[in-house]
Amino acid sequence: MCTNIVYEWLKTLQLSQYAESFVDNGYDDLEVCKQIGDPDLDAIGVAVPHHRRRIHEAVRRLKEADETAADLYFTLDSVKPVQFWA
Fold first, then answer.
1. Sequence-ordered list of residues with C-beta below 8 angstroms from that of 26, at least 6 positions apart, any chain
2. 3-class SS at 35?
3. How far apart are the C-alpha atoms of 26 and 32, rounded to whole Å?
4. How many Å apart are CA 18 and CA 48, to the nearest integer?
5. Alpha-carbon gap, residue 25 to 20, rounded angstroms
């Protein structure tokens, strides 16, 4: 059984049956999974249309989370310190 972040991610999608195939095809990290497209899903063996849609939606959410985190980092980085004492 595969125990890594990709397995846990697929488990949350109720698609853990693909975990071993993901890892065998080099998708052993979520950063790599963000690049998954239809040809990759073919190679991994994800043929069920609603499973493919679920993975595409999850990949979209991973990418959005990165964008949100980048925006937050930028915002925090640009905040000037406030002096509370005189």
1. 32
2. coil
3. 8
4. 11
5. 9
* pLDDT tens, position by position, 48-79: 999 999 999 999 999 998 776 655 555 555 55
pTM > 0.90: yes or no = no
- Amino acid sitting at position 6: V
Report whether 46 contacts 40 (CB < 8 A): no
Q: Is 81 helix (H, G, I), strand (E, B) or coil?
A: coil
Topology adopted by domain 5-68: DNA polymerase; domain 1 (1.10.150)
Q: Which two tokens stand for residue 16?
A: 């853990």
Chain segment 17-40, per-residue pLDDT in tens: 999 999 999 999 999 999 999 999
